[in-house]
Amino acid sequence: MGRYLLRRTFVLALSLIAAGLVLFVLLRLLPGDPAAALLSVGADEAQIAAARAQVGSDQPIWVQLGMFLSDLARFDLGKSFVSGTPVLPEIAARLSVTLPLTVASFLLAVAIAVPLGIISALRADRWYGALLSAVSQLGIAVPVFWIGVLLIWLVAVKWRMLPASGFPMKGWQDFPGAFRALILPVLTISLVMSASLMRYVRSATLDVLGADYLRNARALGASFPRALIRHGIRNGAVPVISILGIELASTLLGAVVVERVFALPGLGSMLLLGIQQRDYPTVQGVLLVSTLLVLLIGFVADVVQRLIDPRLRETVAGR
Amino acid sequence: MNTKRLSVHIFGLASAALLSAGAALAADPAAVIRVGSLYEPQNLDNTAGAGQGINEAFNDNVYEALFRLNDDGSVTPALAEKHEVSEDGLTHSFTLKPGVTFHSGEPLTATDVKYSIERVTAETSKSSRKKSLSTIESIDTPDDKTVVIKLKSKSISLPYNLSYVWVVNDAAGDITAKEDGTGPYKLADWKRGSALSLEAFDGYWGDKPANSGAIFSYFTEAAALNNALLTDAVDVITSVQSPDALAQFEDASAFKISEGKSTTKQIMAYNDRVAPFDNVKVRKALARAVDKKKLLEAIWGDRGMVLGSFVPPTDAWYEDLTSVDAYDPESAKALLAEAGFPEGFTFTLETPNYDPHPITAEFLKAELAKIGVTVNIHVITANEWYTKVYQAKDFQATLQEHVNHRDVVFYGNPDFYWGYNNPKVTELVAAAEASDTEAQQADKLREANRIITEDAASNWLFLYPQIVVSNTATTGYPLNGLNAQFFLRGIAKE
Question: What is the predicted ipTM?
Answer without folding.
Answer: 0.83
